Amino acid sequence: MKDDNKISNHSDNRPFQEILEVNLQRRKILQGSVVAAVSTGFLGTLTTNEAFAKKWPKSLIGFAPVSLAEGGGLEPAISADYEYDVILPWGDPIEPGGPSFNIPVDAEMQTRQIGIGHDGMWYFPIRDNSKKRFGWDDNNERNPWKGRHLGYGPGNEEGVLCMNNEFGTNFQVLRKSVPESLEDVRVSQHAHGVSIVELKRKRNGKWRTVKGDLGRRIHVNTPVTFSGPAAGHPLLENPAGNVPLGTVNNCAMGYTPWGTYLTCEENFNGYFGTGNPPSGDPSFEPTPRQRRYGFDADGFDYYWHLFDKRFDLTDPDYVNEPNRFGWVVEIDPMDPNQVPVKRTALGRKKNEGATVHVADDGRIVVYNGDDESFDYVYKFVSAEDWRTMRSNGESPLDRGTLYVARFYDDGNGEWLPLTLDNPDLAAEFNDLGEMLIHTRIAADIVGATPMDRPEWVTIGADDQVYMALTNNSGRNNTGFRDINGRLVDSGPNGANPRTPNSDGHIIRWHETAGHSGTMFTWDIFLFAEDTHGTEQSFADPDGLWADPDGRLFIQTDGGQKDGLNNQMLVADTATGEIRRLFTGVPSCEITGIAITPDQKTMFINIQHPGNGDPSTSNFPAPSGSGAVPRDATVVITRKNGGIIGS
Ligand code: FEO
Ligand code: CA
Ligand code: CA
Ligand code: CA
Known about the structure:
This protein is an alpha+beta fold.
């Protein structure tokens, strides 16, 4: 992402006053064990479940890792046991025969080309062309990978890939800093959103797009609709009467057991603004509620508002347009005519992703983080068994309870419901819709734990929930007062103990009453800083995906140490062993993971190679070619045909 380094959480949440002493003790124990473990290449002493470890073979991660020496060059590097191919660069046609890449980009053509800022994605197998729909399990939804070993069949060789196109700066997309026309703005808007392609593995083993019914682009001007408690709310309507359009800053994602894709709107605030370059209208004052979401006069310098009043924060005709972004959006990959649905029950925040799990009682649970310094971890639990709800014609994502996490310093945790049964919330909000539109403020009120930038979350084979907390340079021991004079708690807490937290950590928790329950216990799987100076060196964990066998794939976004580019590593969650599978190119981020059901083809993304600067990177063109670098997808296979990560 383009980091929103401004801190929007000006609440004074400090759930633990007595944390420091306990915390220091905890840190000492963790640091001691991690340092000892890293020197031998294992982080094993952090494991809580030794019985689980014994279930798995010692060689869960058997590949030759990319060394420190190999992982910092101009080109990507991959394990000697693996190979890769590059597909779907920004600007390539969605299907064969479509418009090819050209600079300057044409706004209409961009709606038929792959967007920019490749991020979260998921692969939906096509098993049978006459019955394209396929959920994550035909038989038992509680086990997403049951029956996954399809062998060589259509599902492993043909599918629909849904990919988020998070962002491209004006420099990257327009090759200039400020749009000069509505056409420029449309180019930028059409480069954002979601790209959906039909992919097929050819006889030569290469994956290529195919012509079909399902490829499409969803972007900032695509019609969308709202569902759930906030749908139809006056705070989602504008005096202009404009229909809801678009999705933006689509970061990570999720997928449901009924076969749909969830795309998540993260730093949506950055596309709004008012006034002229270079810094917008200096007299603009966001409302306190706008400020909590980080709105200001110049946003992230897109300046769409110069030609598209929908994004002008002071235009009274579009006063509620900002409330239409910040949602989790459901897309049906198998129906190209489906209107994407913004699921308001999941709350409005900087949604990193939306990881869906089915609890033992059949209810849907959606975990996600709100990625900003000192923001929170959330989970949504559907009101009933998801099958019952769907058979009644209701989306399981429309009715349920949204919770926010409080991490106690003793290793316990609690999910705090955001409902109007809470008199403090009822005092602030008139109705549930208003509360969900201001989810962050509701979470402030109930006393959630401020975290070190929650990014991806995934459920491990050990049934623990793993979450990347990417970094938080603002975490310190002093606290400070914001522009409203409120005390911001920037001190450490048990779950976020490092001050500053420059390199991030991975936290995990066990839901002690099942995934739909409200209690958990947590520990820290690892601190990235503790890997520095070792062969496992990495920093700023962001993308996470746990496979069904006990591996945790870790992707990074931030300044790596020890001369490395951003990278993807594989950890064994039982032993703590970590190996580096792939490294990217200068000034890129590695993000996005999708995999075929047989786990033999993995797709990942190289985002913002060279930050768009051809003097830094020409990827995927050869280094030195002078080509403008383009975000692209990397297809990873094991040379011996084995499972990815093995
Ligand atoms: Fe879009 Fe939090 O990364
Ligand atoms: Ca990103
Ligand atoms: Ca991310
Ligand atoms: Ca990130």
